[in-house]
Amino acid sequence: MTAPPAPDDDDRAPATGLLDEGALAQVLGYQLAQASVHAGRAYARSIGTPLELRPVEFSLLMLLQANDGSAPKHLAGALALSAPHLTVLLDRMEERGLLARSDSAQDRRTREVRLTPQGQALAEQAAEAARTMEQALLQRLTPGEGALLFELLRKLCGRPRC
Amino acid sequence: MTAPPAPDDDDRAPATGLLDEGALAQVLGYQLAQASVHAGRAYARSIGTPLELRPVEFSLLMLLQANDGSAPKHLAGALALSAPHLTVLLDRMEERGLLARSDSAQDRRTREVRLTPQGQALAEQAAEAARTMEQALLQRLTPGEGALLFELLRKLCGRPRC
DNA sequence: TATTGTTATACTCTATAACTATA
DNA sequence: TATAGTTATAGAGTATAACAATA
Questions:
Q1: What does the pLDDT look like over B98-143, one tens digit per residue?
Q2: CB contact under 8 A, A24 and B153
Q3: Which parts of the sequence belong to the HTH marR-type domain (chains A, B) (predicted)?
Q4: N or C, which end of chain B is more exposed by having fewer CB within 10 Å?
């Protein structure tokens, strides 16, 4: 189960192909989606397939690496997931031995999620693979342009640290 | 059927909330996903809910507006959809009276997809709503920054017209 | 034999509602 | 009563395989 998908060949033809983008050229959501297709292929190659991690699982791993013992509620908020969705996600990764849930001492309604040593090892491996992936992904931009892109995306959502 | 979803309130708390993004701060795919959440909310408010159009349906409408009589194969390529997925999408929109498929004279395997007058009217309405949406969405950026963001996203995927 | 589009099928993603337990 | 997490259920999205017609 969870068979790794097909090996996904190299950079395919630009998504738009022969057609005129028309009004979509000025629609940010569409351009973000196009870029996400591109990023998704790089992700599958570098992380998804070799490490058998879905994008959300990878994000969760990175988030826990930086925020050990977080409550599910905060994780769901950060990943923009519904509470039930996060629960099944945690179930799956706990069953895989990557993380563990324990009861909180302060508020006994909530829980604390932590990476197991195995989860930490995978997180480090994934973080390393991510660095390689980023290089390949951003190869068409100068370092300055890459940094600018990150800053603009962040600013767009009203998040600090520009 | 196709009941419009909940009215989705104003700009909610930044997705990351209280947690540290950790390594994700440098992962383009994650930052694109965060921005897409933001864009998706604006889309639902301005277009999705009022016009009862899913993102793909909106994109298809815009694409047909600029490329009347396109073949399904080209549409699928431009939208990064599988052929079966596009078929059901076209079925749904044809049933709704927005477009029509006809046989091609040159190659009788393929077909030509065209907007009906009703589809054209909705496309124009959607394009107008998109312009309003973009203004709200890009309000945190200067016009120059907005243009730069579009250019960088395009360059990232190796698409021309920078 | 290769290609276009379609149908059938199944699996993943994601949301809502209902339930349990704490506060 | 409000909140955190879970369970159950359903629906939307998406992929693969099998098929039909045409090239």
A1: 999 999 999 999 999 999 999 999 999 999 999 999 999 999 999 9
A2: no
A3: 25-158
A4: N
